[in-house]
Amino acid sequence: MDLLYSEEHKAFRQEVRDFLAANLPDDMRERLRAGGFATKDDNALWQRRLNQRGWGAPAWPKAFGGAGWDADRQRIFADECAAAPAPTPHPFNITMLGPVLIHFGSDVQREYFLPKLLNADIQVCQGFSEPGSGSDLASLKTTAVREGNEYIVNGQKIWTSQAHYADWAFCLVRTDVDAVKKQAGISFLLIDMKSPGITVRPIISIDGRHSLNEVFFENVRVPADNLVGEENKGWSYAKFLLGHERAHIAGIGRNKERVACARALLAKMEDEGYPEATLAAYRGRIAMIEADLHALEVTQLRVHGGHADAKLSPMLKVRGSEIFQAVTDLLCRMTGTGSLPADGADVTLTRSYLYSRAVSIFGGTTEVQKNILSASLLDLS
Predict the structure, then answer these.
(1) Are residues 256 and 343 in the same domain?
(2) Is residue 55 part of a domain?
(3) Strand pairing partners for 212?
(4) Separation of alpha carbons 248 and 139, rounded Å
(5) Start and end of every Acyl-CoA oxidase/dehydrogenase middle domain (predicted)?
(6) Which of 18, 176, 240, 334 has the maximum number of C-beta atoms within 10 A of its C-beta?
(7) pTM summary value
(8) Residues 6+ away with beta carbon under 8 Å from 172
């Protein structure tokens, strides 16, 4: 695929690889390769190393401390981080909240939050989904009632990743319960997670990990200065944020790294003398996944390079999720009983497989993405 990039971009790819080789801790690399998640400390350490290099926020303008890279450099960097594997720049800090503050926040908010987000001096979480308000996010019911210079927040959020150790949350709250159009009564609020009245309860997911949470707000007082942009305009900011969340959503680098693991495992099985019929079946499956991945990468370059309708982006999310699930399933099948937990091991291929089932849900479910495609491309709304 390097044939699709300029010599300058190829040189940049090598620069990124050299940086990763010199700066990514071996223990972090191995945990991520085995299917583990980056911890809070991992995120902080890696974000600070990236920030020190000037790479802490690839898409942010240089005026706000970002790298100011073009789309190709951002894509190369994301792919190489995934292939290493290394954590990406902190997704909630850098990909989601930062761009919203840059475009819609006040000068005071930008001055206070942006340097801290860049250096992981604070880590934030996303308070969007609620019980009954996931795919239909605009139906959310958490309220924020203005009283003088404060908002009083009451309600519940769910599936909140990292809420158990986040310092702040950016939340969608309903500030006009009488709005004729439900999207029109929503605001975007920054909430200190240490505020009285906040309760965080863990949700243990099917892979046995604790990354998700329920968050309850009971008469939580939030300074009105923490309102981002205008009251009742939060839906517009949320759509802007979700566009950034879905950047590089095809997960090309992540899928390439998993395919590389499958190829390495196949070579090991060949050395160990597995029957040729078994090897041939796995070899063929890897080749089919690689072909799908190659097609997806070309499609991503066409869509994000401006040569095709950007409304196709939901397709990238759908196919990227399907390919990730397929290669994770293949790795488990190739490993057999070796993919199961043993001796109390926390990181296993089985855990990775179970986690992969959620990839077609977060960032917009496959069903929602197909609805978007049908409405935008086929006019079936």
Answers:
(1) yes
(2) yes
(3) 203
(4) 28
(5) 125-220
(6) 334
(7) 0.86
(8) 127, 128, 137, 140, 142, 186, 187, 188, 189, 234, 235, 238
Q: Would you say residue 347 has pLDDT above 70?
A: no
The verdict on 71 and 181 lying in the same domain is no
Residue 177, domain CATH: 2.40.110.10
113 occurs within a structural domain: no
Instruction: Determine the Cα–Cα distance for residues 346 and 356; give it in Å rounded to an integer.
Output: 16
H helices present in 143-275, as ranges: 234-245, 252-271
pLDDT tens-digit map of 284-309: 999 999 999 999 888 877 766 544 45
Amino acid 141 reads K
Spatial separation of the C-alpha atoms in residues 352 and 33, rounded to whole Å: 10
Which residues 6+ apart lie within 8 Å of 25 measured at CB?
45
Helix extents (H) in the chain = 7-23, 26-33, 40-53, 71-83, 98-104, 107-118, 234-245, 252-271, 276-304, 313-335, 349-356, 366-377
The answer to whether position 108 is within a domain reads: no
Integer Cα distance of 66 and 151 in angstroms: 32
Whose CA is closest to 195, among 131, 150, 139, 260? 150
Residues 6+ apart with CB under 8 A from 59: 66, 67, 69, 74, 95, 99, 244, 247
Domain CATH code at residue 312: 1.20.140.10
Contacts of 63 (CB under 8 A, 6+ apart): none
Q: Which domain holds residue 170?
A: 124-234
Whichever domain contains 81, its CATH number is 1.10.540.10
Residue 341: predicted pLDDT: 63
CA 251 to chain centre: 10
Residues 221, 299, single domain; the answer is no
Backbone angles phi, psi at 127, to 5 degrees: -105, 80
* Residue 156 backbone phi and psi in degrees, to 5: -145, 140
Domains: count for the chain? 3
**Cβ atoms 154, 217 nearer than 8 A:** yes
> At residue 178, what are phi and psi to the nearest 5 degrees?
-105, 5
| Contact of 278 with 343, CB cutoff 8 Å | no
% pLDDT > 70, the chain: 92
- Residue ending a domain, choose from 205, 234, 263: 234
Residue at token pair 């996931």: 134
DSSP 325: H
143 CA to centre of own chain: 26
